[in-house]
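Notes from hallway chat w/ T.B., transcribed later so I don't forget. T.B. wanted the structure written out for a chain they're using in a teaching module, and asked if we could keep both sequence and structure tokens in one place. Agreed to drop them here.
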Amino acid sequence: MSEIPLTQAPAHVRHGSNIGQPVTRRDGILKVTGGARYAADHHPAGMLYAVLAVSSIARGRVAFLDVAAAKAHPGVIEVMTPDNAPPLAQDPDARNSPFAFRLDVLQNDKVRYANQPIAVVIAATLEAATEGAALLAPRYETEPVRADLDANESFTPPTVGVGNPAEAHRGDVQAGLAQALRRIDATYETPAQYHNAMEPHAVVAAWDGDKLSIDMPSQGLSMTQGRLAELFGLPVENIHIRSRFLGGGFGSKGGVSGPQVLGIMAARLTGKPVKLVLRREQMFGPVGHRAPTRQTLRVGTDGDGVLTALSHHTKTASSSFDDFFEPASDVSHTLYASPAIATSHEVVRLDTGTPLFMRAPGEATGSIALEIAIDEMAEACGMDPLAFRLKNYAEVEPISGKPFSSKALRECYAQGAERFGWARRPLAPRQMQDDEGRLVGWGVGTATFPALMFQGQARAVIRGDGTGVMETGAHDMGQGAGTALAQIAADSLGLNLDEVEFRSGTSDLPDAGIAGGSAHTATAGMAIHNAGADAIAKLADLATGDERSPLFGAGNTGVVARDGRLFRRDDESRSESYADILARAGLTEIAGSGKSATDPAAQSAYAMHAHGAVFAEVKVDRDFGQVRVTRLVGAFAAGRVINPRLVCSQYYGGMIWGVSFALHEKAVMDLRSGRPMNPNLGEYHVPVNADVPSLEAILVEEHDPYVNALGVKGVGEIGNTGTAGAIANAVWHATGIRIRQFPIALDRLL
């Protein structure tokens, strides 16, 4: 066990500690045996079932609902419509924070997008509620639909993403393009993509007077608790949310959704506990998606292949009633060393649900365009794509001029290329084939994602028997947070992992911030570390101030914590167990608290990002154009690794998501009705096991003293930022055909 210093600055060398160990997920047995209970697995006594009736039009109003027919159906208890929906304390169309998006919760008869909830049927059984919803037989008054990027006037938004400027520049792009010896000017299109986590959005809600108990999947317990308190006019402490397990989040479960609020309203209307679970097709609308983009890149180089200018413009979409603008162009701020960079965005409003956060929002869409453009530029220069990237390697962040807090991208390129065998890649396309005559291509893409951290809190307890407890409202949506954070907790308390009880996943615990932006380990982890350090420091005060202790007089900084004991630094033969210290003081436990927050000075001085390089092999059938990704090697540098087994799992998931982006995912919209044509997993394609190639993730060592005291960067989203572009570039190398519309379809390769 490593030493734990008695300050809030962690030890950076932890030989044999919990941190850095490939511990198996602590919840693995529960999940494989069916013991893990997700939101919809809860069935309080007297529970009723709620089913949404959703709009089949995208714009207009509901003119008629046959409520009488639905209520007459056996088993139906109530039908909730705008006429009888319980009033809310706050307008659901109000926004008082960047994360409080407008909700559709039966506030009127207006329809703003297809699959918008227009009524809720509540019944004694799921079957009765489903049948009752079908009996509503709605009639509508319709208005013309705006359903694609050319269907409405565009405008320049004030910001994109979460408060980023819509336009940014450094240097003179026009002059840089004018002096360039070689130029490309190309447009790339990505489609709308919809969330399809294994667990759909759900809620089980029960009222007890003015107290509300909820089971629901949430990536942001405290934020959701606060939003619900505003909507229902309740004190925050009157709302208790349980969300121990999530079957995938990816941004969609970051805040409360309209259907979940409707489930809570249904429980209030009936006075009974109510369960509401979205059907798969109902997730295509009210719970967020990734907006389509049309991106234009103009790139210039001199005669040596050195960039002279880079311009990245994105046209994207938001809903007709709310603002979320995909910041796709912003990915060009950080990767390549151009003396002149300009990024910009324009937006159209469409009759869809509001786009929201979806794994690597902006970076996923922007990086596929940027990485193909960089490859096209390398081709124009007659250079190897990896050599071209190294030629234009950014030693400082190009858009800001800030130094990086750390950057091991060269090592990622080198290690990934060696493992992949990149040196054997022929420069020209259509030069390789396999034994079955399929064309083989190799491509590379650079991965990047900002290293973020939010505010979080934790509470640590050392118990009288020498064991520990760590409490924080952290969220495990399948990424293994419950294991990684427990490892940090054990080290912070100087205990073995099995000696620490880790409590998370409920809103009555300290606020762990939001599990989003690949920031959860840094956010909750730093709060946990600081809480443990605080508890140990208090314990040390007890011992070093007591004449009966062998540690007397050592002072707080004169002892270290290890293996459930405090040791004198100057004489390790003198030590005392946690249990003995507490027993002599007559205490059953001692508690500490900790917080996490970004360092404004470091944030101002440094650009903070994780980096990586993904190498892809594809095989393409000459006759049918079928593309198979057969090998992916990703090398990533993301600061200190808490658990390499879990980190590799995150990288694998990200790379598979990149396969999905490049080859599979596309929401097909009926431009006449505005309805999604493929709201199911039969026609909305995502990779299945047969589509997943050989995967290898290389964990490149990187030490970052500035990003946070633990040196942790996020890994949840970076895996898909370089992968899709690498696959598209490999397809070109196999076929000689440059694809600029995604996903890559068979007909474009024939």
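Follow-up for T.B.: The two ends are 60 Å apart (CA to CA). Might be a good example for the class.
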